[in-house]
User: Fold this.
Amino acid sequence: MADKPQPVAVLYCPVCSLPAEYCEFGPDLEKCKPWLINNAPQLYPDLLKDANEKEAEKVSEKLQSVGISSAGADGAVSSAQSGEASSKQEVKRLPGGKIKKKEKQEVVIEKVVRNRRKCITVVKGLDLFGVKLSDASKKLGKKFATGASVVKGPTEKEQIDVQGDVAYDIVDFITETWPDVPEAAIFFIEDGKKVPAA
Assistant:
């Protein structure tokens, strides 16, 4: 009689929670590399070679800097480390390895037509200038005697919907009511193109 097959023991990466063989397809291989080098070097021999080369380069750089002068080397190392830290803070990585870009501070005004004759003016980006959208929608509704509400747009960002075609009148009102918003930062979307309001 044949022996029962035994279950296979799978080594899972604690960083990305994938099997070690699939770490290269995970969200961030760079974070998994130290763990892979220590616990699964047979799966990724190239990583081990790269790690050894990097360590050799670091050691040679330190030896060269120490050979020049000890005071200058400490200053150079600390400035290099602070430069690396500041560059890490500027770039934010999202899951999947995507890089988050900083949003441009601009107000985008778009006219949307529904049911062939009803218009809605959409105002996006006021919140980037520190304006509370709920207060802004109340002021816009009172100024133009229409309904105005804060709605989540298709990109999951909040925007203000104002009933009616008030796109060109709204620019003057925004610049007068909120002086922090410059007229150069206000854009219209016309025929799918972004056009400056100024």
About this structure: Residues 45-68 form the longest helix (24 residues). The longest strand covers residues 107-114. Residues 154 and 179 are 28 Å apart (CA to CA).
